[in-house]
Amino acid sequence: MRLPIDTVAVQFMSAGPAEPVLDFDTKAPRLDANGQALYSVHLFAISPDSYDTWTVKVAVEPKSIGNFTPVKVTNLIASTWDIGGNHGVSFKADKIEPAKIAAN
Asked: For the chain, which domains are there?
């Protein structure tokens, strides 16, 4: 099941730079359905009443993201999966970019 996530009430901060997603067996870059290389970004998701850490895959390499960089996540989707009795949730987005911070 694919579920869109409303990111308006959630702030995101990167936990480090983007990393290429590699095939487990061949170590070659994994590609999305359009043939673009995938990257994973570890994020802190922070809302007014909770927080969590997520790994989000994206097909556009995020630039200028390092430790504790506030980021904007575009078109975030959560997908459930079940493989061999194991199950979980994975996250994918169209784009992750540094957030524009308003000056006080």
From this structure: 2-98 (2.40.50)
d(CA 86, CA 84): 6
As a 3-state breakdown, the chain gives helix, strand, coil percent values, each rounded to 5, of 0, 55, 45
Asked whether residue 104 carries a pLDDT value surpassing 70, the answer given is no
Render pLDDT for 38-72 as a digit per residue (tens, 0 to 9). Answer: 999 999 999 889 999 999 999 989 999 999 999 99
DSSP state of 64: S
DSSP-assigned letter for residue 24: T
Q: How far apart are CA 92 and CA 78, in angstroms?
A: 7
